[in-house]
Amino acid sequence: GELQRPGVFLAYKYRSLPIKLGVELAKNSFIAVPQAVIMHADLVTAVATDKAQTTEVIYWVKNNDLQFLVVSLPKGSRLQSDVFVNREAQQPMRREGSEDMLVRLPSGDAARVAFPVRFVFESPSANPGEKLGWWGSIAVSAPQVADVGIMETRHTLFLPGEEWHYTKFSGALSPESKDRSWRTMRNFMNEVLPAFGPQLDTLDQSQWSQIPAVAGDVRMLYGFQVQPQGHREVLHRLGPPAEIGVSFRGRRVTFFYQALAFLIALVAGARCWHGTQTEKLRYLAIFGLGAMLLTGLFSAANVPVLLAAMLAAMIVMFLWIGRSALGVSLRVWRWLCECWNRWREKRAAKAAIETPTAE
Fold first, then answer.
1. 22, 172, 237, 296, 303 from 179: Cα distances, Å
2. Which of 7, 34, 53, 51 is nearest to 226 (CA)?
3. Cβ proximity of 258 and 304 under 8 Å
4. Secondary structure class of 160 (helix, strand, coil)
5. What is the CATH topology of the domain spanning 36-177+209-249?
6. CA distances, 343 to each of 334, 347, 353 (Å)
7. Burial (Cβ within 10 Å: 0-12, 13-18, ≥19) of residue 69
């Protein structure tokens, strides 16, 4: 009847007094939506020989309703450029009593489009003018953003490349993997040899999303640029930037390790010069095959040390082969000489029989 109309949720009927009806009301709460999100954090750091660092930071921001982006620079760092928000340069601000940098963000029509926020800061050296030693480590710091999630980070490092090798990268970010030479041979064998069952090539496939590039006309507006020179390393992470620990070693130390590995392998091969076949096979298994297998466990900077041992083992192996070939050649030569001498003796004896004796 009259109760069957829109807006009526429940209807009650009573027959006698008193009337008592209890109703519980609960208000639904909305799930909080992030006011802004950083889709990509693209950092480029140039490290000087005294460990001073200059870093360019580009955040690709999608803003819903955030007024300021709060950025904390590493301790002791200072800003080296204006902050560019898309195409507009602005003077950064900070709250009273805080070292955090405030970057004013646009809103409105730009809320659904990721735009770049770019600035450059410098982290001075603790020992200005003092070059890197024979070995040690470098801590590459990154800025932190408060209350805004970062989906992906790419951090490109340009390290001093004249006199040092870089043996290890520690931290939450992972270096880009590079193809090893064995993959070429394996791909060739996959084409030649038949294989049954599912293929496992996808186990070696890794891919990071393509970070947007700043338009050329926008980049021309940037006054201060980080110089891309030196040894280049690229690290990635699904998440915000984090500190990277870089272990280094002087090239001279690497050359010393190479020479030491070469001499040890060479001396070990010389000691097996008159050894049995089992001893020689054991030597090749350790310094040849074993060193080759270990190249997959060590960083690229340590591989040359193993290659030096492999080179010495190869030289020793060729000397063994040459010695064996020379021995076989000498035996063949002696056999040929003996055959020649026997043939000459038979010929001389035959000639002596056929020649008449003078009376």
1. 72, 22, 20, 11, 14
2. 53
3. yes
4. coil
5. Immunoglobulin-like (2.60.40)
6. 14, 6, 15
7. buried
DSSP class of residue 273 equals: T
Report d(CA 182, CA 177) in Å as an integer. Answer: 14
CA quadruple 215, 216, 217, 218: dihedral, nearest 10: 50
Return the domain boundaries, the chain.
Answer: 36-177+209-249, 272-332
| Coil vs helix vs strand at 175 | strand
> Which residues lie closer than 8 Å to 118 by C-beta, 6 or more apart?
56, 57, 58, 59, 83, 84, 214, 222
> C-alpha angle 291/233/184, rounded to 5°?
45
> Tens place of pLDDT for every residue, the chain, 359 residues?
666 677 666 777 777 776 777 778 788 888 877 888 999 999 999 999 999 999 999 999 998 888 899 999 999 899 988 899 988 899 888 877 788 899 998 875 545 788 999 999 999 988 888 888 888 999 999 999 988 999 999 999 999 988 889 988 999 998 886 655 556 656 665 666 666 665 655 555 567 778 888 888 888 888 788 888 889 999 999 999 999 999 999 889 989 999 999 999 999 988 888 888 888 888 888 888 888 877 777 777 788 888 888 899 999 999 988 988 998 999 999 999 999 988 888 888 888 887 765 54
Closest CA to 269 of 310, 324, 305: 310
User: What does the DSSP assignment read for 80-124?
Assistant: -SPEEETTEEE--EE-TT---EEEE---GGGGGS-EEEEEEEEE-
Pick from 233, 232, 251: nearest CA to 135 = 251
Integer angstrom CA distances of residue 53 from 61, 130, 331: 25, 14, 69
Q: Which candidate, 34, 253, 281, 263, places its Cα nearest to that of 149? A: 34
- Cα radius of gyration (the chain): 38
CB 142 within 8 A of CB 42: no
Number of neighbouring beta carbons within 10 Å of residue 201:
10
pTM for this one? 0.74
- Identity of residue 134: W
Q: At what angle do helices 277-284 and 303-354 cross, to 10 degrees?
A: 150
